[in-house]
Amino acid sequence: MNKLFLILSITIISLSCNEQTKNKKNDLDPKMEQIIFHSAKSYFTPLKEVDFDKLTPEKKQMIELGKRLFYDKRLSNKQNLNCASCHDMKKYGTDNLPVSPGDNNQFGTRNTPSVLNAHLQYAQFWDTRARTVEEQASGPIFGDFEMNMPDTATLLNRLQDDEYYSKAFAELFPKSDTSLTIKTITFAIGAFERTLITPAPIDDYLNGDLNAISTKAKLGIKAFVDNGCIPCHSTSTVGGQMAQKFALYGYYWDYTNSQYIDKGKFLATQDPSDKFVFKVPQLRNVEKTSPYFHDGSVKTLRDAIIIMGKAETNITLKDEDVDNILEFFKTLTGKIPKHAYEN
Question: Which tens digits make up the pLDDT trace of 35-67?
């Protein structure tokens, strides 16, 4: 009798587990499943990892050179910081601080964006003043609140004394009169940063695996679309392709309790129409890149979602929609490439 009871119990548990698995994967109406999938395919595009096997030896050498520079503290005045100090790969390309300390422990006013997938955006910095990661790379090196290098000559003199750099730059830029310049330094750093691509479960889903993400995440995509988030947050980076006023409804500091009122792009252009305009951030890995907004004034992703609903679409999001959007955002958390870490 005991043996029969044990067999029946195992059978019931097995059937229950199978049913739960089935429900987890297929508890959407087939029609709704397809509607959400095709909606996602319309607005988002999958990421594709760099195939290092197809790269030329010269390209691999350039990437390695850029990586060496990315992790070299000699690029800062007091040699206290490197690029990775603010763009920590273990923290998804950020430092999880509202604003980052500089080489002399000085603080700026803007939050550090993630370097992961950054080259896929239309511009760099919160005020969009740099178009490419190569152009962006020199900004922090000489920034007063960042690495604080006093001048170009000091930096170049430091690097010229390094045997590896002297040889690598000469080999990779043989046609230049002077192979080691700010332009070639930022070109190499950019080559490394362009390999920092983080495919995630959402990409498997977009490539046709409907079971790659949960039903709740799929409903999050629907809520994301239905509540008007798509005009700013789409494409492969789910954002990062335009600048927008923050906030469209009211004043952002009323939502974020910001202590410093940042006028955004206006500070770079002096164009009155650019007041409180900031680059729309990408949402790749957003689950891991707190705190949020240009000044890091909001600690949790849930609060950031609620604020954006009110500030940009004038909608008070339902709790269920917020929960589902959060689940969708988790599918954007990707795998950091192994080569990105410091050796």
Answer: 999 999 999 999 999 999 999 999 999 999 999
The number of beta carbons lying within 10 Å of the beta carbon of residue 118 is 21
Structural tokens at position 70: 């990315």
Q: Which two tokens stand for residue 89?
A: 């790969």
Token duo for residue 343? 């050796």
Same domain, 41 and 66: no
Neighbours of 175 (CB within 10 A): 5
> What six digits make up the tokens of 217?
């995440």
Number of folded domains in the chain?
Answer: 2
Structure confidence by residue, pLDDT tens digits, 163-191? 999 999 999 999 877 899 999 999 999 99
The residue range of the domain holding 301 is 29-49+199-330
Classified as helix, coil or strand, 334 is: coil
19 within some domain:
no
- Partners of 244 in beta bridges: 278
The residues assigned a catalytic role are 146
Q: Which of 193, 216, 242 is the last residue of a domain?
A: 193
Cα separations in angstroms, 231 against 44, 218, 226, 241, 253: 12, 19, 11, 10, 23
Report which of 200, 172, 166, 208 is spatially closest to residue 187, judged by C-alpha positions. Answer: 172
Closest CA to 267 of 138, 128, 151, 163: 128
pTM of the model as a whole: 0.90
